[in-house]
Specification:
Blueprint: E1 3-7, E2 11-16, E3 23-30, E4 37-41, E5 46-49, E6 55-57, E7 63-66, E8 69-71, H1 75-84, E9 89-94, H2 106-115, E10 117-123, E11 126-129, E12 133-136, E13 141-145, E14 150-158, E15 164-171, H3 174-181, E16 187-189, H4 190-198, E17 211-214, E18 217-218, H5 229-243, E19 249-256, H6 260-272, E20 277-280, H7 289-294
């Protein structure tokens, strides 16, 4: 069990939103221990706590809201915070959406490291999976199994030339997140862009902040950062969505064709079955995996 963390100094960044195409400025501020992650929609004078009950939309991004004010596409910054183990922070957003930057979490990691990370002298509670729990809606599946650590296994399949199935299984820690997951960019299909924009989405998308797939392959001249960049970005999104729970999950997350909607529905099911997990507030006595499943 580690100590809680925040950032040492205030830091800011700005840019356009992937879906709204509108400019937003974000200021990240240190927060006291046990505060959690708090968003402030400063141009609407509204505070929005990062938790499952704040999620109001999961269509192509995770959107949180309160009293009519909302902030779109929070998953990439939530993933960066989770990846670096930053627990307490205030995120002041002047605009409707977190800027997409390059479509990954790498720039966000660099911004947070520039602000510095401060330990806060109090242990960080976490949620430990005791018994298997599964969400399955027929199209997507998310499961959590008892596991001594934090691991995620993700599988996706798209019926697309040169794409097909991709699978990744990875132990999640600060180093693996920064190196293996954070650089993976969001992606979309050229054939879907007109539909998305007609429905008010992807207005800020471009080859500078997303991988675009045409009929014959990737349209970006820079190519891919990883051969399996698509599944790595889905892992990034999942880490960001699961971080909305408010506590790190210690267990093995297994996901198949899951997206924002399934991720949030899984969290709601998890919270509805407290017999499947323990909230660890102090260092626990080690329990064997067999006992975790059968007790």
């Amino acid at each position: 069990m580690r100590t809680q963390r925040t950032i040492k100094n205030e830091v800011s960044f700005e840019g356009i939103g992937l879906h709204t195409g509108r400019h937003s400025k974000v200021v990240l501020k240190p927060a006291s221990r046990d505060t959690g992650i708090t968003f402030i929609r400063s141009d609407k004078n509204t505070v929005i706590k990062a938790h499952v009950g704040s999620v109001i939309d999961t269509a192509f991004a995770t959107t949180i809201g309160q009293d009519g004010a909302k902030i779109r596409t929070v998953e990439h910054i939530m993933a960066a915070l989770a990846g670096l183990g930053i627990d307490n922070i205030v995120i002041d957003v002047a605009g409707p959406e977190i800027p997409i930057l390059d479509g990954s979490s790498t720039e966000l990691i660099n911004i947070l490291l520039r602000a510095g990370i401060a330990k806060q002298g109090k242990k960080r509670p976490y949620l430990r999976i005791r018994r298997p729990i599964i969400f399955d809606d027929g199209n997507a599946k998310v499961a959590a199994l008892p596991y001594d650590g934090r691991r995620i296994t993700y599988s996706i399949y798209f019926n697309h030339y040169g794409f097909g199935e991709q699978r990744l299984s990875l132990e999640i820690n600060e180093e693996s997140f920064a190196r293996e997951i954070a650089p993976a960019r969001t992606f979309g299909f050229l054939k879907d862009i007109e539909y998305l924009r007609t429905n008010g989405l992807a207005k800020g998308g471009s080859l500078d902040n997303a991988i675009i797939l045409g009929e014959n392959g990737v349209l970006n001249s820079s190519g891919l950062r990883f051969k399996d960049e698509f599944v790595r970005h889905k892992v990034l999104d999942s880490i960001g969505d699961l971080a909305i729970l408010g506590f790190p999950i210690y267990g093995h997350i297994i996901a198949n064709r899951s997206g924002h909607s399934a991720n949030i529905k899984f969290l709601k099911k998890l919270l509805a079955f407290p017999e499947a997990w323990d909230l660890i507030l102090e260092e626990p006595i080690p329990i064997s995996p067999l006992l975790q499943i059968n007790t």
